[in-house]
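<discrete_fold_record>
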Amino acid sequence: QVQLVESGGGLVQPGGSLRLSCAASGIMFGLYTMGWYRQAPGKQRELVATIRTGGSTNYADSVKGRFTISRDNAKNTVYLQMNNLKPEDTAVYYCNAKIPQTPYDYWGQGTQVTVSS
């Protein structure tokens, strides 16, 4: 059974930092592209960042320079370090694991991030 379990969300003031974690089980983690997506109220889910099996990364323009995605294949875990958070970063953040161009595509349950003073 595939499980992606996110943690690390919460309430933070503008300019603050949070680190999200996503622990994966039931998959061969090293074969998967891992990603973080987010969905704000009334908006579509959007890409935040991805990291491929070889370590190459991709970021949404809105988070470049503020967020960093990383992975620890030994721990089957992907991280999202979020710095200089803004109110517009408020959303539910979802972890994704996929092997591109295959049916292997899994989602976590999401973790709430709220940026507010």
